[in-house]
Amino acid sequence: MAEIVIEVNNLAKYFPVTRGIFRQKKIADVKAVDGVSFTIHKGETLGLVGESGCGKTTLGKCILQLIRPTSGEVFFESKDLCELSDRELVPVRAKLQMIFQDPYDSLDPRYTAMDIIGEPLRIHNILNGKAYRDRVAELLDLVGLAPYMAERYPHEFSGGQRQRLGIARALALQPQFIMCDEPISALDVSIQAQIINLLDDLQQKFGVAYLFISHDLSVVRHLSDRVIVMYLGKVMEISNRDELYKNPLHPYTQALLSAVPIPDPAVELKRDVIVLQGEVPSPMNPPSGCVFHPRCYRAFADCSKIVPILGDAGGGHQVACLLYNTSRP
Amino acid sequence: MAPLLEVRNIKTYFHTQDGIVKAVDGVSYDVNRGETIALVGESGCGKTVSALSILRLVAEPAGKIVSGEIVFNGIDLLKLSDTEMHKMRGAKISIIFQEPQTSLNPVLTIGRQISEALEFHKNMSVHEGMQEAVHLLKLVGIPHPERRIYDYPHQFSGGMRQRVMIAIAISCQPQLIIADEPTTVVDVTIQAQLLELIRNITKDLNTSLILITHNLGIVARYAKRVFVMYAGNIVESGSALDVYHYPCHPYTVGLLASVPRLDEPRKIRLQPIEGQPPDLIFPPAGCAFQERCAYAIPQCQNEKPKLTEITPNHYAACWVSQKGSRPWQKS
Amino acid sequence: MTAPANTVVAERPHHTLWGDAWVRLRRNKLAMAGGIFIILLALAAIFAPLLTPYTFAKQNYSAILQGPSWAHPMGTDQLGRDTFARLLYGARTSLAVGIFTQFIVICIGLPIGSIAGYAGGKVDNYLMRFVDVMYAFPDILLVILLRSVLGGSIFNIFLAIGLVAWVNIARLVRGQIMSLKSRDFITASRAMGGMGRHITWRHLLPNALGPVIVSITFNVPRAIFTEAALSYIGIGVQPPTPSWGTMIQDGFGLIFAKPYMLLFPAIALALLMLAFTFLGDGLRDALDPKLRR
User: Fold this and answer.
1) Residue C5 has pLDDT above 80, yes or no
2) Average pLDDT, stretch B97-101?
3) Which of the four pLDDT bands, split at 50, 70 and 90, describes residue C2?
4) Separation of alpha carbons B266 and A88, rounded Å
5) How high is the ipTM of this complex?
6) A319 and A204 in one domain?
7) Cβ distance A59 to A49 under 8 Å?
8) For A262, which residue in chain B has the nearest alpha carbon?
9) Nearest residue of B to residue C14, measured between CA atoms
10) Domain B5-223 top-level CATH class
11) What residues make up the domain containing A194?
């Protein structure tokens, strides 16, 4: 197993909810991320799956310290990033980058592609003049765009091309880790495949590790080496990719997989869909015990009382569910 | 039995700062009673515009339905007066939009918004309308409907708001519902809930449904017949089984190949469709897809193919298919 | 990853955001008319010595209170000074006040608004309460107070008006920056290692510029009018420096006998203010990206 690039220990982020006009009094916490631990290895892709409100984006931003976690540790190059100040983080940020979901919002509309891609180089004072321009041209080429497009503005590109610009920008400083926050959800289906292939190729070439956040299970399966399933701020299941899709243990994972329609009418005719009841509860008021129990079709009495711990089910497969003995505290 | 709705050669154009955008350029399809069809395509292909054209909701003066007919129950909707069309919308044909945030009025209670259609089309009083609203909310699975009719949209989650949209859409027992990307903004499990709900309701009320989406999985699960759109035209149509198993247009082939499938072993590399969709202001001569097509022949560059029948009830607009060959079919 | 990704929307004409805005502005006839009027007036004011043989101070007791004639196209005032000349030189005062006060407004309002908007929290709270206090004062009274304290030179007039007018810009900039802060491209800049100063200068201010430009364009006629009002009540620029406000004051007493004395400066003031207002309206429409047809 390759060396560990990022290690996350018991990460938690609570957003206080306050009330009051003059002195804000805290009445509750929105537990966006509630005790998450995992590791990411060099050159690997860790897929992070979950629906809206599960905390996956908050988790990603906490790792990069764009949101400061409430508690927990994030280790990178033997340093705990949570302990570093913003100024101390600047050199570290060169090695940890991010790609965004919205190709329209993630680029400053007032600058050309050249300026946008070159901004990281500018901030860290690397390369000037011709070397700078050459590097930008090289990056454009890496993501499949022609060099003359460096002079264009974001609104002159299509969604897929803008996403390529974002990827070029993320690569500028040769990072070791890129956090991909739903990078293809806003793109058309045929363009999604282009970007997925691009991300794959770049990983082969440069050995970058990805945290690939998505709600699209089919895409996650294609790109990831290991997968984490989150629900309401907690990890439900972690596993190697093939194992998760062949043998999902957690009822939530099973429901997720069943809900994804397969593009084949013949297959769909024979499938039974597990339809979950109810809505995702508010993270301000999470259910007692296992956070999933109100919607779980296999829940029993203890599920509302005991919080399952992430237990080892063998072969790198971990699951947090009372149906499995290893998850009982 | 005549189809419930026949869209015949509709052309809807938009006048913009840069030129005329031919959003829908000669599109025809039909829906039978009680049937669910799907309009599939990616952004910019014209599927939403064609649906808005049916209800004559295209934004004027920039957008205009330039030619064609839309025959619903034997009547050409494009020839109706504004008042008569007004009576159609919400009553005989209703629509569910993609974004419940912007489709619902934030300052009116949910109950009033549902009863609005009932008051207008069925001449109910406010009180009767609210009572019917309770009944409808129960039908779409919202708990405690007697209390919820007094709530405002922001007090509902995204999935709940879509259910409210569905309730509004079915309130006057329409014969046809148009669902424009109804689940794009919600999560996978909520999507499953909503689509199952729509399926059950349309089955119970024997309503026809036009499902507009870019998600090939949803189409496979819910639609009986499929119309694939690209750059303002229909490029392939037929039963879902035919189109998915024996596609006759390279675009459909490309789409199917570029989507990873959970039930198949993992492919080492996806097969995207290279390139970008064409600019609708300056469309290429000949076939709109040929620049991206791996199977193009010289004829594709010069002449735009027309939708022709390849096998019974399976149509495609492709010269290669029309010549009888299907180089993409492996078996 | 080859050529096909490069099929840009290259058929469409290449235009930048500013270029786009300029095209839209050009289409707005009123705004263009306003802009041209301002430019012409500025040129006339600068080249005043070439346009009239008289100076604004030259008194000619043999030609007092004359109506418009060939010698004096707009007549003379009670001291025999040529009205047309005074109007032209007075334009210098008005335009100078209009424009230079905005420098002060930007120098104070922009930093305060940006710091409040970007820092948030307590800093924002304190700064905004200060702004609220300033805002609560009736502005004319405050200007009069400052003017009395500072004295009557034209630079002190700039100061007095500017020190009161920055409040709106501060609020505006703060609002813009607060809404921009949450945009993804700002997060991206932070993720690359960008710190406060870099992000503010490179991303926040350029994007907040649009509404600020519009607001300043609307501020100018207000400043001009304030100066005219000050001069009207006698505490504006001191004679013999000409000011349209003073001219209006002089003309007011003779409104029935010699109406043209009031009319010319009053119409000039009204036209200049209208011109800036039309231009401001046009700029607002042109700079709003959502209004693109």
Assistant:
1) no
2) 83
3) very low
4) 42
5) 0.87
6) yes
7) no
8) B217
9) B18
10) alpha beta
11) 4-19+29-95+175-327
